[in-house]
Amino acid sequence: MPELVHLPADAPADQVTAILERDGALILDGALSPDDVAALVAELRPYVEATPPGQDAFSGNRTTRTGALVARSPLARSLVMDPRINAQCQAVLGPNCHRYQLHLTQLIRIMPGQAGQPIHRDRWAWGRHVREVEPQLNTIWALTDFTKENGATQVVPGSTKWDDDRKAEPSEIVQAEMKAGSVLVYTGSVFHAGGENRSQGDRWGLNITYCLGWLRQEENQYLSCPPEIARTLDPQLQALLGYAMGSYALGYYTPPLPPGQGPEAVPPEYALGDGAPVASLGGADLLEAVVARTRPAEEPV
């Protein structure tokens, strides 16, 4: 039976990347302290307890999924920007985009009595259309212990190159058992699923995922974290949400103002009122400004 590799949270980035390339998933142990976990749970609990369960077998009739975590949870923002994870985003996604972006933030609570989720690939969010590149890198931060009994994530190591229609045999599936504070890191191409919760307690996992900057995000970050909130955040987090040009001509907008009262074709960070010197972009000016803004040397994204 295959196994998931466990590494310490401070393992060398190239070692983590090599395992992700081979297996599609691994666990970093001890990425958060017990105090960090307790603080996150306390901050998120009111939102989680107010979230209704899913309405179908895939989302889970005994599972809640609480989103908009960048806007709601200051503590979750540090996980979104975790340098260990962003290093893997750069390694896995960076070669195929000018800028990667935040795809989804969601606290997944699997409650007692929840059946196992169907095995799937997260990259299927875009259907079967993205085939030649890895579009996604994902994390599940354990805020409770993950055990076989309480629904630890099912993973099929080494399945990233499988045909979409191949079915995993029971002997090929393992569960991501880990202590609270550890994090499961996995690609969008690895087969996996939420596990069955046969215990008497909830399983809490903080699902933060990233994708290529030229793809539509699963969670609409501009609505989940609108400009009035985003403008209060660190510029690197703003860019990761999508308030930055993804490439030449990817992401500009025109403020819908009366004639003569606003600029044309401005970069998205203009909506945050950051004092960007480019008032209006067009043609060669747009290209020059986008190249300057696409991947600043100081930014990890």
UniProtKB/TrEMBL annotation:
Lineage of source species: Bacteria, Pseudomonadati, Pseudomonadota, Alphaproteobacteria, Caulobacterales
GO molecular function: 2-oxoglutarate-dependent dioxygenase activity; iron ion binding
Alphabetic keyword roster: Dioxygenase, Iron, Metal-binding, Oxidoreductase
InterPro entries: Phytyl_CoA_dOase-like
Organism: Phenylobacterium kunshanense
Superkingdom in the source lineage: Bacteria
PANTHER family linked: MULTIFUNCTIONAL DIOXYGENASE AUSE, PHYTANOYL-COA DIOXYGENASE DOMAIN CONTAINING 1
Protein name: Phytanoyl-CoA dioxygenase family protein
